[in-house]
Amino acid sequence: MGPPVVELAEVSKAFGAVRALSGVSLRLLPGEAHALLGENGAGKSTLIKTLAGVHRPDAGRVLVAGRERRFSGPGDALAAGIAIIYQEPTLFGDLTVAENVFMGRQPLGFGRRIDVASMEARTAELFSRLGVRLDPARPARGLSIADQQLVEIAKALSFDARVIVMDEPTAALSAHEVRRLFGVVRALREQNAAVLFVSHRLDEVFALCQRATVLRDGAFVWSGELAEETPDSLVRRMVGRELSQLYPKQDTTTGEVLLEVRRLTREGVFTDVSFGVRSGEIVALSGLVGAGRSEVARAIFGVDRSDAGEVLVHGKAVKRGSPTAAMAAGIGFVPEDRRQQGLVVEASIERNTALASLGRLSTFGLLRRRTERALAQDWAVRLRLRFARLSDPAGVLSGGNQQKVVLAKWLSRNPSVLIVDEPTRGIDVGTKAEVHRLLSELAGQGVAVLMISSELPEVLGMADRVLVMHEGRLVEELSRAEATEERVALAAAGQAVTR
After folding, report:
1. Among 219, 239, 259, which residue terminates a domain?
2. Angle at alpha carbon of residue 479, lines to 475 and 482, rounded to 5°
3. End residue of a domain, out of 224, 239, 254
4. Which region, left, alpha or beta, applies to residue 87 given φ > 0 means left and ψ of -120 to 50 means alpha?
């Protein structure tokens, strides 16, 4: 493949007393897709930001085409041919796709006016190189996450980037969009670019990448050919131990119906949804992206107001469109987007843990700080939270640890019904196993768990029953014994008999 396009040599980076990277080395070769693996908190984000010029290493060297480079900012890294495609791209919604690609570098024509035709033609050529079709003249607002990523990749090519870093690019994509992205990555490889692929999904890593590098606790662990590895061997390298069971589902005795949903409807979103969840049961709500799963969960909790139907907990109706009433009834809700909807990222870890319990932690309206800290400390130990100080902002935690804080916020209320929307999205395999263990333990304690998940192995591994949605309707109900990947996928695609 030739000499490395980019190389990190013994790079170290610390933030105060926290050592984020310690002597890490990485070599990216032309024409390869290289996976960067590790648990949340292993140092992947710091490494990416070092490549991007956001962080300057305390020690070690960054070499581009064999020459040492010192980046003073992201502009320097981009000028050196290194582009970062983040999980959630940030485009200017009111500008066209072509204007976003050439922002600040628009081609000029007569009278130094922007040559729109030339700009759109050059953008179309970039998309052609990637093997995708996207209208350069359409506004960026309304583009799917997958299409936004394509715009960012086209922008990177417009800078003649030789290294494309993709940070969790498939986390919010459908199966079709993932296949299209893989085709784009293969096109980039054929053009001799090096792709650094960051993902927790090992099946995607093996399908796409040729080599991998593993980090653990900020240190380099291993780098080598994936053809000589297995998913189990990579997991051992990442977590430093045998992972006994990813889906530790306990056998439980189900009791009375705790959550009952009757003919719930929200016009244009979902229609006539009815089901129940019993004590000690984990029920998975499955379906394709856009089928209405998250919207049903939000309506049950009262974030969105339903137009018809009712929600009952312990046989009593819950006031429609009122999260306060849902909480009082014993419902906890872990939303899909933990950063935007589950946390106040600027607030401390201890404050976030206590947010749903402020009433019982207060005396005459005054919050007892000692009680708040004790609550957070207790749940940090129970959930094996990794942090520096409880007073640190929640935003500094890794994705998996942020998810644990959101879980702690609701578990501290002892809910009888827990709704978890994509509970393991974007978190590493070791933390996934811990979250699964926790959900199984909660069901064993008699909690009714409603789990929304896009990962079929998670659905099949954890659910006692699977409810499948298609275009806003509940179309199939399968017991644990009946549920298979094929049956769930067929129902999600609308090939099951509609109720």
Report:
1. 239
2. 90
3. 239
4. alpha
Both 235 and 266 in a single domain?
no
- Helices 231-239 and 429-444, axial angle in degrees (round to 10): 90
- The 8-class DSSP code of residue 357 comes to G
* Rounded Cα distance, 223 and 368, in Å: 49
Residue 183 lies in a domain: yes
Tell me how far apart the 2 most distant CA atoms of the chain are, in Å: 77
C-alpha 48/C-alpha 197 separation (Å) is 11
**Do 74 and 160 have their domain in common?**
yes
Q: Is 259 domain-assigned?
A: yes
Q: Which domain holds residue 494?
A: 244-330+415-499
| pTM of structure | 0.66
358: number of Cβ within 10 Å: 12
Give pLDDT tens digits for 63-90. Answer: 999 999 999 999 999 999 999 988 777 8
User: Helix/strand/coil (H, E, C) string of 194-247?
Assistant: EEEEECCCHHHHHHHCCEEEEEECCEEEEEEEHHHCCHHHHHHHHHCCCCCCCC
- 3-32 per-position pLDDT tens digit: 899 999 999 999 887 789 999 999 999 999
Domain count, the chain: 2
- Report strand pairing: 82-85 vs 6-15: unpaired
75/174 same-domain check: yes
